[in-house]
Specification:
Distance between the termini: 134 Å
Low-confidence stretches: none
Number of helices: 5
Strand content: 5-15%
Structural class: mainly alpha
Mean pLDDT: 86
Shape: elongated
Helix content: 55-70%
Largest sheet: 3 strands, antiparallel
Length: 155
């Protein structure tokens, strides 16, 4: 009977571990989905055009509704403190703390840096194209005027 009891207790421990593992996987999957939605702040439209829902606490941004904890979200929903705004506008509002604001600030800064780099590259490509067109064979006319050439007048 002792062996049977030990085996049953071992089976209970195994089932508890399996249940905890399943719960942890479910939690991780749910968090990954939430973070995946918020981590897609990768384009200028994502931060400056597309409105997002923000949970507010005492008039301050507590975070995106998809990533705040359940208690904050429940309280915001009960009070009607859910605000629609772009990331750009939300970053200009007061936040509950800097740590909560930081991931959105970094995402916004990364998008702006990427956009600025793309604009610089496009400008450089246009300048190169303009220079190529200007210096291409046949593009130079034989009638090039010298702006400061000396003119001799025949009398």
């Amino acid at each position: 009977m002792i062996d049977e009891l030990d085996a049953a207790q071992q089976r209970v421990r195994e089932l508890e571990i399996e249940l905890a593992l399943r719960q942890a996987r479910d939690d991780a999957s749910r968090l990954q989905k939430k973070l995946g939605r918020i981590a897609t702040l990768a384009t200028l439209d994502d931060i400056a055009v597309v409105p997002h829902e923000w949970a507010l606490v005492d008039g301050q941004v507590a975070g995106h509704v998809l990533v705040v904890d359940d208690q904050v979200l429940s309280g915001a929903l009960e009070r009607g403190d859910v605000w629609d705004a772009t990331v750009e506008v939300a970053l200009q509002a007061p936040w509950v703390d800097g740590e909560t604001r930081e991931p959105y600030h970094c995402a916004c800064a990364n998008v702006l840096q990427t956009v600025m780099q793309e604009l610089r590259e496009a400008k450089a490509a246009q300048q190169a194209s303009d220079l190529e067109a200007r210096w291409a064979p046949g593009a130079v006319s034989g009638n090039s005027a010298r702006p400061f050439a000396r003119h001799t007048e025949a009398s």
